[in-house]
Amino acid sequence: MDWHKRYEQQAGWTRDLRAYLFAKAEAKSARQILEVGCGTGAILSTVDSSAALHGADIDLRALAQCRVNAARAILMRSDGLALPYASASFDIVFCHYFLLWVGNSLQAVREMKRVTRPGGHILALAEPDYLSRIDSPDELKLLGAWQVESLRRQGADPGFGARLAETFFEAGIKLEEMGIFQPVEKRTNAEEFELEWAVIESDLAGMIEEAEIQKMKLCDQAARQRNERILHVPTHFAWGRV
Ligand SMILES: C[S@@+](CC[C@H](N)C(=O)[O-])C[C@H]1O[C@@H](n2cnc3c(N)ncnc32)[C@H](O)[C@@H]1O
User: Whole-model pTM above 0.90?
Assistant: First the structure.
């Protein structure tokens, strides 16, 4: 599985939202910007600002790719639950498809707040709520249940998106704006379909019989051809200030 390709796909879903929120957070005039859980740099490499860019991630292999993809960023291998930065260091601290993975999302958000300067901005750009996922036709509902189970087995919190705003509130962050968006496909359908299924197959390997997975894939493909496929994963964002 090419995870950078997947992260670039997700980056495509949030391109317009990011442009809107980074403008609100005055990214162009910021001096220090940090992404927590920067992964391979799919987002960090697109930040339109002359600020010093920083990235933190726990995974060394992802950081090695990030070094190539976001060459000018200053990277640190670190746990988002205990960031290795002095308090009040950054004008903007953001994350993207990160808090669901971190184990203790409240602690991670508290750390994001701690390293943001007074008056600075905190952006959680995309946190899905797979527990509210809608699949249609009915035979594809099982696919949603499989994915939720697989995310849990991988250590993620599949319903975290729905608790994003209250987590900001609990961390003492002043919420400026919050909302939900529906990831929108930007590529040709066939390309998007194959990439989506590469992720599904990787997630379900060892958990569901291969023949069952392929049956579900055919079912999905046929529903799309009939123009009857609905897949909705409400994905939450929040913008707050310290
Ligand atoms: C789904 S990826 C998203 C990467 C990037 N934000 C993007 O959207 O392209 C989640 C990232 O969070 C990182 N991560 C998970 N738990 C972490 C932790 N406790 N501290 C730091 N990074 C963590 C993973 O290594 C992974 O790179």
Answer: yes
pLDDT in tens, 230-242: 999 999 999 999 9
**Rounded CA gap, 237 and 125, in Å?**
5
Neighbouring residues of 57: CB distance < 8 A, sequence distance ≥ 6: 37, 38, 39, 63, 66, 75, 77, 78
Q: With the CA atoms of 143, 148, 149 and 155 taken in that order, what torsion angle do they form, in degrees rounded to the nearest 10?
A: 150
Pocket test of ligand 1: the residue of 10, 18, 58 to mutate, having most ligand atoms within 8 Å of its CB, is 58
Express each pLDDT in 212-231 by its tens digit: 999 999 999 999 999 999 99
- Pull the structure tokens for residue 173: 């962050």
Sequence-ordered list of residues with C-beta below 8 angstroms from that of 27, at least 6 positions apart, any chain: 33, 47, 48, 49, 51, 92
**Bridge partners (DSSP) listed for residue 123:** 94, 239
In one letter, which amino acid is 175?
L
Ligand 1 — pocket residues by CB below 6 A? Answer: 7, 10, 37-39, 42-43, 57-59, 62, 79-81, 96-98, 101-102
CA angle 168, 171, 174 (to 5 degrees): 55
Write down all domains in the chain, each with its CATH number in brackets: 3-241 (3.40.50.150)
Return the ligand 1 atom nearest residue 59 CA: 25
Q: Residues 135-187: pLDDT tens digits?
A: 999 999 999 999 999 999 999 999 999 999 999 999 999 999 999 998 766 55
